[in-house]
Amino acid sequence: MSNLQTIELKHPLPAGTFPETCTALGFFDGVHRGHEEVIKRAVAAADEKGMTPAVMTFFPHPKEVLRNAEAEYLTTLEDKKERLEMLGVEILYLVQFDTSFASLTPQQFVDRFIIDLNIKHVVAGFDYTYGHKGKGTMDSFPFHARGLVETTTVEAFRECDEKISSTAVRTALKNGEINKVSHYLGRHYTVKGKVVQGEKRGRTIGFPTANVEPPLKVLLPSAGVYAVMVEKGNETYCGVANIGVKPTFHQDSTEKTLEVYFLDFSEDIYGEVLKVEFIERLRGETKFASVEELISQIDRDVENARSVLRDS
């Protein structure tokens, strides 16, 4: 049972009584190592001050509302909540990001969504902005808070002069740099999805696969073949995942699919939810001249995956 209390909010904020909190502010997509630093600072400050550790985030992504552009999410809300709870957060303020909320001035945001929520200490990244057109910054926050809220600003999280950000994670995923993604996140990238009916072509060539339907708008790694670990219920299995359009069989398809071949497991699991954890990219997607060539390559992929997963 989750210990994280989720409080859904929207503008205008209803009247209510809220506990004193130290709250981390941000969208926190992916909850990467930079995000974790912000959240851990808030949890530590809350513990020191005897307050409740909290996070305020927003949904949907602002660009979906302000630019009518489709967002590519690194984490679902469910996964984000799970990660926040693991980091010690007790309250999640989930604010509905709409045009009404986006039109608040920086002062209105601080008055209504910080002071009125009884938030006594705010922790955010150096680049956090708030209010209409993001005109409020962490430099201006003390002015808008009028001495009623303490602030902690966390500088960019860098390693080897490289800033770790959600954009950097997305770029690495799209480039197939799965090891870099794991480094940025501090854990392996995962995608949860239900097993749905596929073409069943894999079983005709000796490699039956589970066709996993990822959540809407969640970003898949680039097309290719990956060594993966798969959680099914309380069990974990080794596997090989293929992401792509299967060019050996499809000439013009552009719709990417996620298929998983279990190395040592073969049961009917339609309708079950799998958690696919990407360990290492084995190769890119290739169009083969024949089905026989494809089968030979899959045999090699399986052996490579066994080696990778044995050593990981």
UniProtKB/TrEMBL annotation:
Function, in words: Catalyzes the phosphorylation of riboflavin to FMN followed by the adenylation of FMN to FAD.
GO biological process: FAD biosynthetic process; FMN biosynthetic process; riboflavin biosynthetic process
Catalytic activity field: riboflavin + ATP = FMN + ADP + H(+); FMN + ATP + H(+) = FAD + diphosphate
Entry similarity comment: Belongs to the ribF family.
Keyword terms of this UniProt record: ATP-binding, FAD, Flavoprotein, FMN, Kinase, Multifunctional enzyme, Nucleotide-binding, Nucleotidyltransferase, Transferase
InterPro entries named in the record: FAD_synthase (IPR015864), Riboflavin_kinase (IPR023468), Riboflavin_kinase_bac (IPR002606), Riboflavin_kinase_bac/euk (IPR015865), Riboflavin_kinase_dom_sf (IPR023465), Rossmann-like_a/b/a_fold (IPR014729)
PANTHER family: RIBOFLAVIN KINASE, RIBOFLAVIN KINASE/FMN ADENYLYLTRANSFERASE
Any matching Pfam family: Flavokinase
Keyword Transferase: yes
EC numbers for this chain: 2.7.1.26, 2.7.7.2
Functional pathway: Cofactor biosynthesis; FMN biosynthesis; FMN from riboflavin (ATP route): step 1/1; Cofactor biosynthesis; FAD biosynthesis; FAD from FMN: step 1/1
Domain of life: Bacteria
GO molecular function ontology, one term from the record: riboflavin kinase activity
Domain Riboflavin kinase: 184-310
Species this protein is from: Alkalicoccus halolimnae
Protein name per Swiss-Prot or TrEMBL: Riboflavin biosynthesis protein
